[in-house]
Amino acid sequence: MTDQHDTKPPGAADPPGSDGLRAGRARAAAGAFGRAVRSTLPVRGGAGRGDGESRDGDREAGFGQRSVPDATVARLAVYLRVLSGFADQGVVTVSSEELASAAGVNSANLRKDLSHLGSYGTRGVGYDVTLLVERIEGALGLTRHRAVALIGIGNLGHALAGYDGFASRGFHIAALLDADPARVGKQINGLTVRHVDELAEVVKEHDVSIGVIATPAHAAQDVCDALVSSGVTSILNFAPTVLAVPDGVDVRKVDLAIELQILSFHEQRKLAPKAGGGFGSLEGVI
Description:
The protein is α/β, with parallel strands linked by helices.
């Protein structure tokens, strides 16, 4: 079983520089991986005042019972990354304006997003960086590392398997699986690739909570069904296909080609004549 971009025949030697290519693929996918996985995580109860920085100081944080927009969850993950960087630099407190600027959002949106956690800042002082990191990690369910099973060890899967950045974000690749006999038994980043038929056993053995599918499109649904049957209810899908899942199973799709196509659209808009606006004339196309 390979990912959709794997054209190397089974057993063929890796070309020179392949390690660098894999590292590049991993870096390109890692950000999407983290954002997509975090959006599948459960959130905690406990309502907050939602007033951003307050005179009352810190209060118990946690998501309230009301629905939290996916966009807010994604931005919380960005705030966590920025705050972790501040903490590494020895920054103790940060204002909403400083955090918003570093995260690429406006301060009003940031305060609204953080209001889902409750009130924890101090007016005129800002947010305690360490405490805010802890609150966001708790809200995103990152207080313990979550075991991930990666299925499909082609080019993309191999790159993801070798990426070391997930551990610092609250995830660890606990198991690698593939259907290709040429890959089963190989060692990647200290893990032995196991046959996909062992998926149910692997899920139980490692208490896997998230499955990552990096297979070709034609194999993705079968792998998805196997994950669901094994009790996995959070799935990250890199395969270029839409998966059918029962209620209660969360699926996030990451399609790097689509992301590139979106960027291509924006590049085209920068170069296209501004007259007429919109998508431009469709004359001669329809």
